[in-house]
């Protein structure tokens, strides 16, 4: 019974070559042929049921998206999700800027040429809490270096998780391989659910339970690193123009001074 179920799922995937790629290594260096354009490619490694990547594909038609996972069942759910969203919002269940790929992140370099990807999303990756499994965590330095190989000069990694221990481990990993980080958040939905952001299935569940979501972005490609450094330099220059930064202590002193001043004026 289960085998027949699996066979049906595989048959359904094989009937969708416009959306589902079962042998992604064949597309290495040719993903722009699949999409029929040269738009940048963003991938979610470990897409689960595909809510995040499907929603992004509908929101941003000028970006090509790839949702990757290891299981046929998840690819099938992802294909249903994507086609439903597109049918409801665009009037057609064809999804031109999305590929759902069966693959293991371990072999990312077999599926993509150097520089072929512009952004990698790691959303709620399995935390693998036991120390002996640390090398399986998708933010282990060995994976980060693999991502760098396939990212372009504008390449970025966006990572979010509910797991504090995975986030701590990841901060160390990014730092160990000297990847610049920015926009670090220890509670992404602190002010209430961020409906301006695209949430994943896991995120929706955890935010509903009031759990904090940890997030960071890493700028990996040379061009995006330079751009980031320029923005930081501009911000520092602007700050310098406005005068020296106050710390909390001096704020208090200033408050006291203000009170003294106004009292003496009275
Ligand atoms: C906890 S789920 C998160 C799913 C989704 N990103 C979300 O936030 O709702 C992790 C997913 O990553 C997939 N995954 C784990 N390791 C993987 C690997 N090495 N290659 C591809 N997918 C992987 C799992 O099959 C699972 O679907």
Automatic annotation (TrEMBL):
One GO MF term attached to the UniProt entry: tRNA (guanine(46)-N7)-methyltransferase activity
InterPro entries the record matches: SAM-dependent_MTases_sf (IPR029063), tRNA_(Gua-N-7)_MeTrfase_Trmb (IPR003358), tRNA_methyltr_TrmB_bact (IPR055361)
Record-listed E.C. numbers: 2.1.1.33
Protein name: tRNA (guanine-N(7)-)-methyltransferase
Function: Catalyzes the formation of N(7)-methylguanine at position 46 (m7G46) in tRNA.
Record gene name: trmB
Residues that hold S-adenosyl-L-methionine according to the record: 44, 69, 104, 126
Organism: Cohnella suwonensis
Pathway: tRNA modification; N(7)-methylguanine-tRNA biosynthesis
Positions contributing to substrate binding: 130, 162, 200-203
Keywords: Methyltransferase, S-adenosyl-L-methionine, Transferase, tRNA processing
Region Disordered: start-end pairs: 229-266
Catalytic reaction list: guanosine(46) in tRNA + S-adenosyl-L-methionine = N(7)-methylguanosine(46) in tRNA + S-adenosyl-L-homocysteine
Family statement: Belongs to the class I-like SAM-binding methyltransferase superfamily. TrmB family.
UniProt biased composition (Acidic residues): 250-259
Upper lineage: Bacteria, Bacillati, Bacillota, Bacilli, Bacillales
């Amino acid at each position: 019974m289960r085998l027949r179920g699996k066979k049906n799922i595989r048959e359904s995937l094989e009937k969708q070559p416009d959306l589902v790629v079962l042998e992604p290594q064949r597309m290495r260096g040719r993903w722009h042929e699949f999409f029929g354009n040269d738009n940048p490619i963003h991938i979610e490694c470990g897409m689960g049921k595909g809510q995040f990547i499907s929603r992004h594909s509908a929101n941003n038609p000028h970006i090509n998206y790839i949702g990757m996972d290891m299981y046929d069942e998840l690819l099938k759910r992802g294909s249903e999700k994507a086609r439903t969203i597109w049918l409801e919002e665009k009037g057609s269940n064809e999804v031109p800027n999305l590929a759902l790929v069966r693959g293991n992140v371990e072999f990312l370099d077999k599926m993509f040429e150097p520089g072929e990807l512009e952004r990698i999303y790691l959303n709620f990756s399995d935390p693998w809490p036991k120390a002996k499994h640390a090398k399986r965590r998708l933010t282990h330095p060995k994976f980060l270096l693999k991502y760098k190989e396939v990212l372009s000069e504008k390449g970025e990694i966006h990572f979010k998780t509910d797991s504090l221990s995975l986030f701590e481990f990841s901060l160390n990993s990014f730092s160990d391989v000297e990847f610049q980080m920015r926009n670090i958040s220890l509670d992404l939905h602190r002010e209430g659910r961020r409906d301006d952001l695209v949430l994943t299935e896991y995120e929706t569940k955890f935010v509903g339970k009031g759990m904090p979501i940890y997030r960071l972005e890493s700028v990996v490609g040379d061009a995006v690193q330079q751009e980031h450094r320029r923005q930081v330099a501009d911000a520092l220059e602007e700050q310098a123009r406005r005068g020296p930064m106050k710390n909390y202590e001096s704020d208090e002193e200033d408050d006291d001074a203000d009170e003294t001043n106004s009292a003496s004026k009275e």
